[in-house]
Amino acid sequence: MGTALHTPILDWYAEKARDLPWRRPDASPWAILVSEIMLQQTPVARVQPVWTEWMERWPTPAALAAEPPGEAVRHWGRLGYPRRALNLHACARAITADHDGRVPSSYDALRGLPGVGDYTAAAVASFAYGGSHAVLDTNVRRVLARAVRGEEYPPKATTTVERRLAESLLPALDAPTWAVAVMELGALVCTARAPRCADCPVAGLCAWRLAGRPAHDGPERRGQTYAGTDRQCRGRLLAVLRDAHGAVPKAALDAVWADEVQRERALDSLVADGLAEVPDEGTYRLPA
DNA sequence: TAATCGTGGTG
DNA sequence: TCACCAAGATT
């Protein structure tokens, strides 16, 4: 039944796709890997400028691998989840050391790189190398939940049922374009909060819309307050290290977060995560 | 499995 | 306004 989705969605994509730099034909596998990791839980609009700067600065894995990891963290800026910067740096070194300087093309080899999970491995294997994989990101999962399963939202964690469904929908030809088209539909039309069904190419056969767009019934979907959390504290501390050149005295870190217990905990966790170093007693810096 | 990991735009 | 959410991964 799902194959009826292919033509309308592919036609819609051909007309409406955004022109994103990592989708251009000249985008290298490295450029695509960098984009995919930057895009994890991060909107396109915020990724664009950072990705462009990274590509100019580090056009190859070898270029990034030659830098200390702290430089990756510094140029990550305020993208969020800065361990991704360390992951990309570790990817660059692993690719240089173990893959002859080229981003691997197989799903399994990609999956073995730091920070590359099921989604990212499938995405890079597809978009950089033309492989045929089920690419299950939040957009695809939501589109399939609605169009096929008739539910407003997918389960919190990806299920075997979802994966089987996505695999059953893989087209015989050009699976990568199918994948990016469904993702784009989810990003631009079949959005989480205010879906634009009037603009949807498959509104006529969407199970959720045909059922009258019933509200999600299961348990509450979320709960991620941020103010006052360790995450916010870590962000403040790391911003100080990023904006400094070289080591900073601990007093500079003490100044940005009042709660001492929480601040110490956060600082220790940054060091434990490899996002900060203690070159001398009482001073901190990005990892050199 | 569920908690944790940043940041900023938005309905 | 503020809770929600964005091309997830890891432990």
UniProtKB/TrEMBL annotation:
InterPro entries: DNA_glycosylase, Endonuclease-III-like_CS2, Endonuclease3_FeS-loop_motif, HhH-GPD_domain, HhH_base_excis_C, MIG/MutY
Pfam families linked to this entry: EndIII_4Fe-2S, HhH-GPD
Domain HhH-GPD: start-end pairs: 38-188
Keyword flag Signal: no
Cofactors, names only: [4Fe-4S] cluster
PROSITE patterns assigned: ENDONUCLEASE_III_2 (PS01155)
Superkingdom as given in the UniProt entry: Bacteria
Record keywords, A-Z: 4Fe-4S, DNA damage, DNA repair, Glycosidase, Hydrolase, Iron, Iron-sulfur, Metal-binding
Family that this chain belongs to: Belongs to the Nth/MutY family.
Full protein name: A/G-specific adenine glycosylase
Species annotation: Sphaerisporangium corydalis
Upper lineage: Bacteria, Bacillati, Actinomycetota, Actinomycetes, Streptosporangiales
